[in-house]
Amino acid sequence: MHLIVDANIPAAEACFSAFGRVTRLPGREITQAHLREADALIVRSVTPVNEALLAGTPVRFVGTCTIGTDHIDRDYLAAHGIGFASAPGCNAEAVADYVLSTLLTLAERDGKPLLERRVGVVGAGNVGARVQARLQGLGLEVWVCDPPRAEREGGAGFAGLDTLIERCDVLCLHTPLVKEGRHATRHLLNARRIAALAPHSVVLNAGRGDCIDGQALYQRLAEQGDITAALDVWESEPGIDAALHQQAAIATPHIAGYSLDGKLRGSLMIHQALAGHLGAPSALTLDAICPPPVLAALTLAEALPVEEALRLCARAVYDTRRDHDALCRRAACEGMTAGFDACRAAYPLRREFATLSVQLQGDARVLVAPLRAAGFQVR
Ligand SMILES: NC(=O)c1ccc[n+]([C@@H]2O[C@H](COP(=O)([O-])OP(=O)(O)OC[C@H]3O[C@@H](n4cnc5c(N)ncnc54)[C@H](O)[C@@H]3O)[C@@H](O)[C@H]2O)c1
Ligand SMILES: O=C(O)[C@H](O)[C@H](O)COP(=O)(O)O
């Protein structure tokens, strides 16, 4: 069996070589010609998988080690009997870490405590529900917009997007890119809604870039300068709009989910799905491919103010400013498109909040509940 595997997939050998010969290629460069003798294709989100790529190839299984599936033409796969698997939830913890790290940083920069903010979560699936739970656990008022869930579960606990815009001063987008239908998300945050955002509000997008009208957001930021944007995802990645990049307070190259844990969970989930597809045994576990964290524990010996303690622990594990700075630096040296992808390809080792055990001594014990709510282990 021959497998074509995106070169940005960690533990590809451990996860896929048991099934056959593995050839690794940059995801954006995989073409139909590479698949002439391939039986399986394992991608991340940067390879559009459709008829143009697969027609006439022997590929019988496609796996994407990502949560998002908007790059996959699933109808084509189903119509041609090609097996498919994605990795739902694999990096959801990492995205929730990114959200907390980013909001804590913006709170410090703007002098507006996060714990006093009212947050709207748009799209409350694996990612959004975790963000909601962490923020509610910290005592914040959280409003949720998720029409598909509201339809399935009844409207209680959900509100419309316009209500969130009216009531909240932080809006976090965690929607998939859905191009058509009643719940389409392309330009969900459109010019009208961007104009309706209250002054001093924060917009954070860690879903898909196309869910926001980037041009309209740019205009609001550049012309009024009264709102703050934290953008991890962009229209037209990797060739993103340099002007919008300049205006974003935190601008990162689609790395919100890039914890080692999250990426390896994605690889493992596709390994398991391929084993199932082939009827092959699989005993591989996350522990077998994921090393222990470099920073496993820290001790707080004094009671800091809650928000300060959260920032300190968050930054010990993951500081969103590092990724913002890296993109600025690389874009200045290599140009935006190359810099964007270079940051992603050379992404530094990052672990999840849950890998840090915080020991609280004496008065610092008052921090047990908030640190736990934020996602850390607490002793
Ligand atoms: N920035 C990153 O690194 C990163 C990482 C992981 C996922 N993502 C993106 O985030 C998306 C969400 O991830 P997830 O794991 O929570 O997916 P999920 O499928 O578990 O949840 C998506 C939620 O969005 C809701 N939704 C759909 N249409 C909506 C609409 N019009 N308005 C409001 N809500 C709507 C769905 O009902 C669902 O509950 C993924 O599809 C992916 O595109 C980005
Ligand atoms: O959908 C996902 O899981 C995320 O967007 C993921 O982080 C994408 O990773 P990439 O394909 O860009 O490496």
Automatic annotation (TrEMBL):
The keyword Cytoplasm applies. PROSITE patterns: D_2_HYDROXYACID_DH_1 (PS00065). Substrate binds at S45, T66, Y258. Its EC number is 1.1.1.290. GO terms for molecular function: 4-phosphoerythronate dehydrogenase activity; glyoxylate reductase (NADPH) activity; hydroxypyruvate reductase [NAD(P)H] activity; NAD binding; protein dimerization activity. Keywords: Cytoplasm, NAD, Oxidoreductase, Pyridoxine biosynthesis. NAD(+) binds at D146, T175, D232, G257. One of its GO terms (biological process) is pyridoxine biosynthetic process. It is found in: Cytoplasm. Residues 109-256 form the D-isomer specific 2-hydroxyacid dehydrogenase NAD-binding domain. Residues 291-363 form the Erythronate-4-phosphate dehydrogenase dimerisation domain. It catalyses: 4-phospho-D-erythronate + NAD(+) = (R)-3-hydroxy-2-oxo-4-phosphooxybutanoate + NADH + H(+). It comes from the Bacteria. Homodimer. HAMAP family: PdxB. Belongs to the D-isomer specific 2-hydroxyacid dehydrogenase family. PdxB subfamily. PANTHER family: 2-HYDROXYACID DEHYDROGENASE YGL185C-RELATED (PTHR10996:SF178), 2-HYDROXYACID DEHYDROGENASE-RELATED (PTHR10996). NCBIfam families: PRK00257.1. This is Erythronate-4-phosphate dehydrogenase. It comes from Vreelandella subglaciescola.
